[in-house]
Amino acid sequence: MCYAIPGNVKNITGNLITVDYFGEERKARNDFYDLQVGDYVYAQGGFVVEKIDEKLAEEILETWKELFFELKKTDVRLSKLYNDKPDLDKDFLKVIDKATYGKLISRKEALRLLLCEDPDEIDLLHKSANFIRQKFLDNACCVHGIIEFSNTCVCKCTYCGINSENSTLKRYSLDTGEILEVVADAVKRFGFKGLVLQSGEDTSYSSDKILKLIKDIRRNFPVFIFLSLGEREDRFYREAFDAGAKAALFRFETSDSTLYSQLHPHSSLKERTRYLKLFKDIGYIIASGSLIGLPGQKAESVIDDFMFAKELGCDMYSFGPFIPHPDTPLSDYNTPDTEYILKALSVLRLIDPYGKILVTTALESINPQARRQALMSGANSIMLNLTPKDYVGFYDIYPNRATVDVSVEKQIADALQLLKSIGRAPTDLGI
Ligand code: 5AD
């Protein structure tokens, strides 16, 4: 998945290459291959992940050619911006106007958008976000696979079902052989080009073991590796990057330091942020975000989270709803409404026209329509769950997770059908 389209290398400057896709040029970083102008490659997240044989590339491009342009046409048609309600509040329209021209909007203006209640305003907010996504990022939609390889965790996050205090949960850890089998299936059988390795903060999984796993994956499979492992030694993250993991998914959870400390008795926002800066320094693509709808969190705080994530230089945003878990201290609180999360994602798109925005599984879990709605409201990235079925139910961060009982084949078929219907290409052409 993320059926990367083969790109043709047009220019090479050090480890930065220019890749052509049917006349569109993108940049990618090449850390792994000896390349010449004219070679064909697959790129993911702005990194070359595979060099491919010319004949094979040409065959694949032939099958893509018509579809590539057809999908774009559908997307352009569905993302047209028009406002047939000229009586909308002038201040609201001013902010929308500014954002659609790619201009920065202020915290106050973003808050005005997030707090809008008028159905016509909400509708225009979503349409504007979709328009901006199309205008600045076109119709590519990343489709990554996630492997949750251990639910063992030393953290005490009060919202999270796998926190160390939850003694009712059965714990599991896949060994590296089992993980490699899942990776082999994902890459060879299903065609995934980007994979997230996720776990709780499992100290029994040594950093050396994970480094070896990353090397084994890169040696055997042309795939872009995201790490989502929480706080580990700085040294580990430096070595993991060199070993071939090029992205880190690491949420800051909330940018309100008081709220952060209440929710995470074991850690601080300062330390959390230090990691994100470290990842950026090392060169990782970073995906981060927070929980929306946390107890005690105001709309102002959500906007602060968006601004904070943008300032950190996130390449991809992962913002999703807080869902109360029955075996946590926050069990009695409410799940936020889908509509609020969708509004928030649209506001985020107006704040950053360029970042990738993920439709989180948490959002899909509170409303089965939400994946499509989010993709039509500014989002452009999804994740499919590849955790083996004997374990996936135990990765119980929140209850009733979407896709827990859906086979990988069906997840892929559903995703492709949806993307096709809205003119999105399951590709990641890079930057
Ligand atoms: N609801 C929604 N998301 C949650 N996470 C953990 N617990 C919950 C919950 N109850 C998210 C955290 C973490 C990610 C792996 O899962 O934001 O970063």
Automatic annotation (TrEMBL):
One of its GO terms (biological process) is water-soluble vitamin biosynthetic process. Its cofactor is [4Fe-4S] cluster; [2Fe-2S] cluster. It comes from the Bacteria. Pfam families: BATS (PF06968), HupF_HypC (PF01455), Radical_SAM (PF04055). InterPro entries: Aldolase_TIM, BATS_dom, Elp3/MiaA/NifB-like_rSAM, FeFe-hyd_HydE_rSAM, HydE/PylB-like, Hydrogenase_HupF/HypC, rSAM, rSAM_sf. CDD domains: Radical_SAM (cd01335). SMART domains: BATS (SM00876), Elp3 (SM00729). Residues 139-362 form the Radical SAM core domain. Belongs to the HupF/HypC family. Keywords: 4Fe-4S, Iron, Iron-sulfur, Metal-binding, S-adenosyl-L-methionine. This is Biotin synthase. Transmembrane segments: none annotated. GO terms for molecular function: 4 iron, 4 sulfur cluster binding; metal ion binding; transferase activity.
